[in-house]
Batch of 2 targets.
Target 1
Amino acid sequence: MENFTYHNPTRIHFGRGQIAKINRELPANARVLLLAGGGSIKANGVYEQVKKNLGARVTHEFWGVEANPDFDTLMRAVELARKETCDWVLAVGGGSVLDGAKLVAAAVHHEGDAWQILVTHGAAIKGPVLPIGAVLTLPATGSEANGNSVISRRATKEKLAFYHPQVFPKFSVLDPETTFSLPERQVANGIGDAFCHVIEQYLTFPADGQIQDRFAESVMRVLIDVAPRTMANPRDYDARANLVWAATWALNGSLSAGVPGDWATHTIGHELTALHGIDHARTLAIVLPSLMQVQREGKRAKLLQYAERVWDIKSGGEDARIDAAIEKTRAFYESIGIKTRLQDYQVDAGKTAAEVARRLEARGETAIGEREDITPAKVEEILKLAA
Amino acid sequence: MENFTYHNPTRIHFGRGQIAKINRELPANARVLLLAGGGSIKANGVYEQVKKNLGARVTHEFWGVEANPDFDTLMRAVELARKETCDWVLAVGGGSVLDGAKLVAAAVHHEGDAWQILVTHGAAIKGPVLPIGAVLTLPATGSEANGNSVISRRATKEKLAFYHPQVFPKFSVLDPETTFSLPERQVANGIGDAFCHVIEQYLTFPADGQIQDRFAESVMRVLIDVAPRTMANPRDYDARANLVWAATWALNGSLSAGVPGDWATHTIGHELTALHGIDHARTLAIVLPSLMQVQREGKRAKLLQYAERVWDIKSGGEDARIDAAIEKTRAFYESIGIKTRLQDYQVDAGKTAAEVARRLEARGETAIGEREDITPAKVEEILKLAA
């Protein structure tokens, strides 16, 4: 096991009716920037509950944070927060709203170009960061309990991530009931995203992190178990609650402590979103099976462990078991309605593979993955295999 | 799943050489009360590393916190902290030193009789609590990352626990190498203690907390795997690191969030320590198998899950599988050198069973366990079965 520091200071209020806790969490004199998406929280009653519990606090609302939150949109939220001297950001929505809230919180007191926060992956953050609270309405990204944020810039077709310990939410409310009304597509995306988060932290060269391995396998098994239950019956509270809690643990720092991570699937997937606007989770489903194939030698031991412990594949030769595990992975995504081939998205694999390779090359990302052995040429190979 | 709030703010520095982090964690002007046990930290080099990293900070040392830390001892530490106006407590040692540090930190500014902190299980804590840092030298209690403390009072043969959110350590250093020199008996006790912590949170009526169940099963499987490795070769870094990390997760709040807990094994075990001075972990090994037997109907579903997922017991009738799982549990404790029968400790089961039942009755603890169905009469039955 490698040395590590583990710290997750977010207080989670989980369960029915827990939105009431924001009244306890926010100071009475807080000046709140309420950040939200397109309005679904008005339809499902979340907004009403939030407003009630904000009570008489000064609140300024900023609506319109989109999926793959856009830098320019968020800069308008920053302007509002500065103008109204907001001192808390309350994110009400899914991972995009949360990721956006993190950039806003970090940018309000940032001097100079806030895009530098992204370019430096968070290192440019020097000033104070506004405290963040969250009411999560979509289980997926884990953003409710981590210090990560992914921001897109449509103007330049860029998509970058940053991390900073100050952007962990101070508190997050996770009420599974608020997710009952989500469209099926978003639930599926959430499951697929969370599953891949675990894989990125798990499917690496073995590092004898036994707790980390078994926790990762636990989260994957729970996702595999609850996916059909919660898709078939969105109002099954326990199934949904297990999905929500699994998605949080998929990316709250516990699985990655002391072990290597990979994240090449995400790096390549982000390019597919930037180029073709494919949903984030769907890009992962496209890239992951092919990446497993291309990287199977370096990941051999862990792929065999994955086959046995996650999919109960225990017989057959090593390569047969690895192939079976990769097929199970693909079938899992397909079973929740997420297509895993580029052609399913009307994307020309050859052209896109070359373009993604070129873009990574241009950004200097010429050695990605856990062993930094995924070159642009390998990225091209992976994407062609995903045709 | 039940509603819950989950919050674990302790920052963990894990690995070789991480004691150096205390220099970053403690303010330069901190006035430190260093709390320690009998002196083993001088023999194994931990004290030297700690002193080096405390540097020029004002430090007052209090030595002599014993196993099952004694209230009267700790009150002398409180006097020292008050006299020297200490504003940080640094615990350097195992769970007893940590538990003691929590009482000291809470008692320094407490008005009136500090024993009330124990009697009220923490509710009496009103004043400010000194911040706590820890350098853990014995993997066992999980006290390095929770808000729990168990304190004994030899003068009255009492042993009580308290919880308070303010006594979570601000930071804890876990360097597996500092545990290499532990006596075999203490390592075994740590493993046995951690295993029972998991059982108390897991072996209950099912609550469909799938993450919690699988994480609990993960921690138990890791303990079962590393116990023989780390006992056979105490200097095997990875085995010891996995033990240390498993023991932390066994009681950091993650396994109990949203699901019922039992803790009757601990309640009964504490009485055996109070009456006969038996090591804490050993009392758990005595009580647990018999408690499983006596409570097998209420715990039937979870005992079957435990048999299958933790011990791979998949064939035979239900009762046979439960019996096998209980025997596996007993054999696990015996395999690490922890005897599981009262007669192994030269204790008369009949007399002790009656005495423990009488003491619990006298304290009004007449309905313990997850379903509050363990009466003093049942306690007597459990202890007689443990003869």
Target 2
Amino acid sequence: MELTILGCNAATPRKNAQTTAQLLEIKGQLILIDCGEGTQIQLRKLGIKFARIQHIFISHLHGDHFYGLIGLISTFRLLGRTADLHVYGPKAIKEIITLQLKLAKSWTDYSLYFHELESAESELILDHEKFTVETLPLDHRVYTNGYLFKEKEGPRRINKVMIDKYGVDVSDMENLKQGKDIRLEDGTLIANAELTLSPELPKSYAFCSDTAYKSDLAALVAGVSCLYHEATFLDNHQDLAVKTKHSTAKEAAQVAAEAKVGELILGHFSSRYSDLNEFIVQANTHFKNVSLAEDGKRFVF
Amino acid sequence: MELTILGCNAATPRKNAQTTAQLLEIKGQLILIDCGEGTQIQLRKLGIKFARIQHIFISHLHGDHFYGLIGLISTFRLLGRTADLHVYGPKAIKEIITLQLKLAKSWTDYSLYFHELESAESELILDHEKFTVETLPLDHRVYTNGYLFKEKEGPRRINKVMIDKYGVDVSDMENLKQGKDIRLEDGTLIANAELTLSPELPKSYAFCSDTAYKSDLAALVAGVSCLYHEATFLDNHQDLAVKTKHSTAKEAAQVAAEAKVGELILGHFSSRYSDLNEFIVQANTHFKNVSLAEDGKRFVF
């Protein structure tokens, strides 16, 4: 998986800091997660072929997470898009977007599907051939979901050395990938396990923004390869975190530690902090493998 | 008056080309005209103290002219604005904005007034102490208005030389500015015209985007100091101009010539053109004093 941070600033965009949007490449599919104002401009600046995006997941209806959506949907139309587009987000997202398309007399020529969410429980919302997406109910001032992206287990991998040793025919490769045993021309049966290696370990990514510390979240994201968790504040603003239902760097790291994730990315920083290194320092008291999100930064896991 | 182009690209923002937004400073007031996506980011980049904006005029409800409005309104709230904000635009603009504020549970703490327009005739919509604003009904695919900003005539200007010659007292200055005659201590009546100069000539600015060539527009903008007129296409795309209800550079210049304006600014260029100089060349066949809009460019008139 490859994750590109398009923006990670809290509340409002700044001169050199966009609001939340991320691009996730998973099994060749390009997925957009949140879409703050100016996301389409950021996509262009980073040279991303964003017409490939087929799924967009919006966490909640605060502006810094979705004011760029209507512009992106309109631009897809202007660029002559024909491929379907699926938008997942809180109930009412369809009303907001379609009202604007209607008033602009600019219906999309491509099929635009809205998948509106309102459950307070985690649910499977996309079962793609190569991956799944589940919601992660969060605790914010308005109805909010994080999203958990999980690769499905791929085919078994051909063990080239053993294939050559037994002289297995190329026509058997597909059966081998599917886990089947193989009978050689002389009638000998060779067990699949002898000719193949285990599939690559499926990777997973959890996106959690915006939320107060939520004690049941760790169970839902247990063992993910990478966790993005918002860290709007440092410890000295714990009162603001409580009041605005955001997290501190320590709280984000606590979730990462409880869930035993592979790595933690912090983001959604309040503009009040000029030195972000302290977020790492405070998070490290609970979890070691921590990075900071940054506009344009790529993470591969 | 000082006009700053924040963006002038048609349809969608590009890497280095924002969609329509302009800032007009008139008699010390800061006015925003149209508000494409990312306008607030552009305002920050140009170092403009945008909290001073009290009036916003939206021409029509196509995204490249107003998708940045909701973000700006939200940011004003987050920055603790208390001053009133007046938004002028087509009917339904209030519904779009308030729906989004409601769903975000983020009502503004400042007073937000919507002035919704639906007349097909030019009307006076703002009568400020120092200037007026009238609508300029345009011809586009959806209901669209340009706007005409006119300074009111200022006070008469004191003629310092004559004041000194007659020894007029400082307490008479306000009366002189208002056009009154003055009686000296010795009883002599001095005519106002002898002690003052005419007020500065009021300036005016007409903003016209988006529109097909409209034959009755010239009468409405006759003699303005500066006319901004969209020029989405060059001559070779006249068919597209007709189809999409936009103007060519020549048509924009034709309006300028008919209206005998002081200067013409062209903008709203289609992204298909890499060399914009041809817009000047083609416009010059009808009108000489032509400039091209450009992100960040300032015009003083």
